[in-house]
Specification:
The structure holds two protein chains of two kinds. Chain A is mostly helical. Chain A is 72% helix and 0% strand. By secondary structure, chain B is of the alpha+beta class. In chain B, the strands form two sheets. A six-stranded antiparallel beta barrel of chain B has the order 1-2-5-4-3-12. A six-stranded antiparallel beta barrel of chain B has the order 6-7-8-11-10-9. Classes of the chains: A mainly alpha, B alpha+beta.
């Protein structure tokens, strides 16, 4: 895990940069695709629990410094997604080599679907009651589709940086 | 066993950090410093990705949208001609209005100084309608100042740095604006409905005569957040509920918020 910490952290920072420079401007139906949530999710699916939570906290923290929404909420949602995904990853669900090809995209799509809802619920906890008024359904659908499409390349990247392939051979 | 323990510890630490960040946000203060530092850390990564991604994105966008760009250019030339004509016609009227408002001691936006700025970033998230601009405290931009562009009000400044500022757009869910229309003395409060959802006013009394197409202006009431007379929105739809004593309005912002590249910050501070 320690060996993977530096490359995963650097990649997480790059993902935040990618989110801010590319994905936040490239809106589909007016919706921003949140790769800062997809990344911890796929790291979790690779079975790297601690690293996935770490990526969620780092990505969420740096992303929220650029946003006017409650600070830390992106990290909270990322941690929840990462933890659930890592539980599945530990069981081998969503493993790119052994599971059916559609399992990873399906789990990622489910993550994209629930992430905006989790965000709104977390907003209530942070005493921000205005978040639900945004076009939630649109965000859920667009993020679910985008997560499904991007999940496999992102998962490959996560596995290669986390050294998962090497471990599987052993 | 050990893995379970370390995992649990990891989850607890992460949850603790997240909770701490939320608490820091709620209590305010420390977060602005944290934000500044974190921005500095992310900046090189964003810069590197920008340098690689933007030219590629522009190349594809230019190739795909070429015919669109040409037709837009023709349309803009036509609109520019119309605007010049209207400007000439309006010059005399503007002078007259300025003179009248001075006599009435009412502030008029046309007479207020503005600072032109460029939009540097759109809101990175789905949950806030904001834009970052290229002018900040060093140029006289302060929190609370109204921002206009594309023929209407687009929002107000909510945060500043020495060389930049963040503008909350009128469509943001936390935005509320007091408006009036034509020669009416009726005032309404309109609210932002989110990034893609425009504006709305609810519980408008039936005695109010508003039709689709009516333009609403800032009311400029004493203690208000905006000076009077800035066009904000036009009525798009009037929703009547049978038996109700009020009706709802769906409104369309006067300014085209989707294509704001340059804007003017009105150097006007709300009275406290």
């Amino acid at each position: 895990m320690r060996r993977a910490l530096v490359p995963i952290t650097l990649m997480t920072m790059s993902i935040v940069g990618l989110q801010l420079s590319v994905f936040s401007s490239l809106r589909l139906s007016g919706v921003v695709i949140m790769v800062v949530w997809l990344w911890p999710l796929v790291v979790g699916l690779a079975g790297l629990t601690t690293l996935s939570i770490w990526t969620a906290v780092v990505a969420g923290f740096f992303f929220d410094t650029h946003s006017t929404t409650p600070f830390g909420l992106t990290a909270v949602v990322g941690v929840l997604l990462a933890y659930v995904a890592s539980r599945l990853g530990k069981e081998g669900v969503g493993d790119l080599d052994s599971a059916a090809w559609w399992v990873t995209p399906a789990i990622a799509a489910l993550g994209g679907l629930v992430a905006p809802v989790l965000y709104v619920i977390s907003g209530f906890v942070a005493l921000d009651f205005s978040l639900w008024r945004s076009s939630l359904a649109q965000m859920m659908v667009v993020n679910a589709l985008a997560f499904a499409v991007l999940s496999r390349p992102f998962a490959r990247l996560a596995r290669s940086l986390g050294g998962v392939r090497t471990r599987a051979r052993r | 066993m050990a893995t379970d323990r370390s995992r649990r510890r990891g989850v607890t630490i992460a949850a603790g950090i997240s909770a701490l960040l939320v608490v820091l946000y709620v209590t305010g203060g420390v977060v602005s410093g944290l934000r500044g530092t974190a921005n500095l850390v992310v900046a090189p990564f964003s810069w590197a990705i920008d340098a690689v991604a933007k030219p590629i994105g522009h190349m594809f966008a230019g190739a795909v949208n070429y015919s669109d760009v040409v037709s837009q250019n023709q349309k803009l030339r036509y609109q520019l001609g119309q605007a010049q004509l209207r400007a000439n016609e309006g010059w005399a009227l503007a002078r007259q209005l300025e003179q009248m408002t001075t006599e009435l001691n009412v502030p008029f936006v046309g007479a207020l100084a503005t600072v032109s700025a460029q939009v540097t970033n759109l809101s990175p998230t789905n949950f806030a309608a904001t834009v970052d601009i290229s002018k900040g405290r060093d140029n006289g931009v302060l929190v609370g100042m109204p921002v206009v562009a594309n023929g209407g009000l687009i929002g107000s400044v909510i945060a500043t740095t020495p060389h930049g500022a963040t503008v909350r757009l009128i469509t943001d869910v936390n935005s509320s604006i007091g408006v009036t229309y034509a020669s009416s003395k009726t005032t309404l409060v309109i609210n932002g409905q989110g990034v893609n959802s425009g504006l709305a006013a609810t519980a408008v009394p039936l005695t109010t005569s508003l039709n689709p197409g009516t333009v609403l202006f800032t009311d400029g009431l004493s203690g208000g957040l905006y000076p009077p007379g800035i066009p904000v929105a036009t009525v798009d739809r009037v929703t009547l509920t049978p038996g109700a004593a009020t009706f709802d309005l769906t409104l369309k912002p006067t300014a085209d918020l989707a294509h704001v590249m340059y804007l003017d910050v009105v150097l006007w501070e709300p009275s406290t």
